[in-house]
Amino acid sequence: MRLDVISIFPEYLAPLELSLIGKARQDGLLRLEVHNLRDFASDRHRTVDDTPYGGGAGMVMKPEPWALALEALLGRGGAADPEPGAKPVLIVPAPAGEVFTQRIAEELSAQDHLVFACGRYEGIDERVLDWAQEHFTVRPMSLGDYVLNGGEVAVLAMVEAIARLLPGVVGNPESLVEESHQDGLLEYPVYTKPSSWRGADVPETLLSGNHAKIARFRRDQQLLRTAARRPDLLRGLEVSGLNRADLEL
Ligand code: 6GU
């Protein structure tokens, strides 16, 4: 997979050189490049923003540098033989986007080429997104209902969520299967040694060696936790994914 990030603060993306993602880049499992939007500005001051038409607070990112930066990436797709007509996906982080979920991370991890366009200030001139639709599948994406200063931190989160799903990035692929959101529920609580710590004991079932009982205990914990913390997730559960014991809880 090829990933390109365009930002006026390329240094913000430095953590992508660390840990599992950094290792995956070194191992050639993914190609990630960060580009400075200012390199595509045309004036001496490398201006990328201007005042909003219609008035209002803040500044808006000018269209020309964005178009040049995005055009420079076209024709440099991720796959050796990109499917004819397969457009790269342009992800535009913004609080006004669709909420990024594990499902979307999975979907995006199957793509050959992702481009992340980090907006700052009040955002990017809307015409850039309209124009880009001819060359990209454009996906405005939000991490949730709060406001960040720019897209960079959101890109760190999205790239990590997507890249760890690529084959070979996470050492033990089984660890991908049993985690929060994989089955629509939150993860069960985990414990390690010592079995008694400051007067708190590990739940007895987990020490029993009875695998059926342990599986049932964990599933109950998932359901209880999800009901307490994220009741919204329960509504989205497929009934076919539930069993009789789940319903007796
Ligand atoms: Cl993706 N961008 C910005 N600027 N703020 C956000 C966000 C994204 N997601 C939540 N807040």
Automatic annotation (TrEMBL):
Class of enzymatic activity (EC top level): transferase
tRNA methyltransferase TRMD/TRM10-type domain sequence ranges: 1-234
Binding site for S-adenosyl-L-methionine: G119, L143, G144, D145, Y146, V147, L148
EC number(s) reported in the record: 2.1.1.228
Xref: SUPFAM superfamilies: alpha/beta knot
Keywords: Cytoplasm, Methyltransferase, S-adenosyl-L-methionine, Transferase, tRNA processing
Reactions listed under catalytic activity: guanosine(37) in tRNA + S-adenosyl-L-methionine = N(1)-methylguanosine(37) in tRNA + S-adenosyl-L-homocysteine + H(+)
Gene3D superfamilies: 3.40.1280.10, tRNA(m1g37)methyltransferase, domain 2 (1.10.1270.20)
GO BP of this protein: methylation
GO function terms (MF aspect): tRNA (guanine(37)-N1)-methyltransferase activity
Quaternary structure (record): Homodimer.
Task performed by this protein: Specifically methylates guanosine-37 in various tRNAs.
Family per record: Belongs to the RNA methyltransferase TrmD family.
Protein name in UniProt: tRNA (guanine-N(1)-)-methyltransferase
Name of the gene encoding the protein in the UniProt record: trmD
